[in-house]
Amino acid sequence: MNKLFIKDLDIRKIQGKRVMVRTDYNVPLDEDGNITDDTRIRATLPTIDYLLDRKAKVIIASHLGRPDGKVNPKYSLKTVAIRLQSYLHERAKVFMADDCIGAKVKKQIDEIPLGNVFVLENLRFYPGEEKNDTAFAKELASLCDVFIQDAFGNCHRKHASMIGIDEFVPSAAGFLLKKEIDYFEKAVNNPMRPVVALLGGAKVSDKIKIIENLSKKMDKILIGGAMAFTFLRAQGFNIGKSLVEDSMIDVVKNLMNMSKKNGTKLYLPVDFVVAEKFDSRAETKIVPYQEIPENWIALDIGPATTKLFFEALQDAKTIVWNGPMGAFEFDAFSRGTYAMVDAITNSHASTIVGGGDTDMAFHKSGKTHEVSFISTGGGAFLKLLEGGELPGIASLSDKKS
Ligand code: AMP
Question: Which residue among 199, 328, 386 is best mutated to probe the pocket of ligand 1, counting the most ligand atoms within 8 A of its Cβ?
């Protein structure tokens, strides 16, 4: 990464200074507002620890949910501040603000002792955050001497705290941001070969740029999920009532030709779990891909495909996975996805996993510790897979050569 990293900053820029860390504490909450998964909070501890060790005042800035530019107590970061305190123990006190900009907040920051943490209230309580309003970005910048970007999961967004603020204050990447980028580079742009991508999910149109980009870089691409049906249809097969995007058939045909030219092997499912209707209680059966019945819908990959994909992953030294193999939210159609979790955790390959559903499958299986790296970013990870640039990173200060 050609951007300044927190460790590149001179100690004099940190010690005794007000250092703002943009984190992605957009954690999932249950109906009562309890945090159901705090991975994103724990992932930022290395950056916070580093700054506390150097006696900085750490100012945390984040959004939570979609309050649409209005104050909404449901999306207050108070619960997050309490959880952060539980991880910092006695080491530092976590103070919670009731706003994220303004004279009162500035005064409170001035008053807290060095080596402590100050959590700003939800940035999205102001419309200026999502609009990347210059005045809002300037206000935020006025609260700190240095800005550290560690909100990888939000780096695809052009918001005030993601790109606007860097214009007004020196900035650098935090530990989480660097870890995400380093893993990604190692897995996709400079991988140990063979490198295999496992792609699933609902729509080819959502993933087309990813498949195009990866077909230039991967040795093999395994395609599961509903995306597979557009590929099968493009080859003239009957796919019953399964999800298909007829408008993408020509695009898919080009893609298959392009992969062939690039020497990337494409693997498609060879059997499916089909159901009479999209209902977990519907009658199901397993059929080869040539025999999907007229009025049935294919909702998961079948056992022969699981075996095929398992074998295709055997020699992999690197695996990249995004997207479920079937409608895995329903037990009846989840076997293929969980079989891939097993295939990956049993493999010796270095693996990077990303995207909300894939992440969820690992969490549900309780095997998150058995995979090399699970990205904390959904949209940001997908943007990188497309070969795109992340604005939240592009706007950081450059490393001086
Ligand atoms: P995406 O957000 O594009 O990764 O798609 C994830 C969604 O794809 C999940 O909600 C799955 O239920 C859905 N999905 C995967 N395979 C199928 C399938 N065969 N039929 C219908 N939906 C599917």
Answer: 328
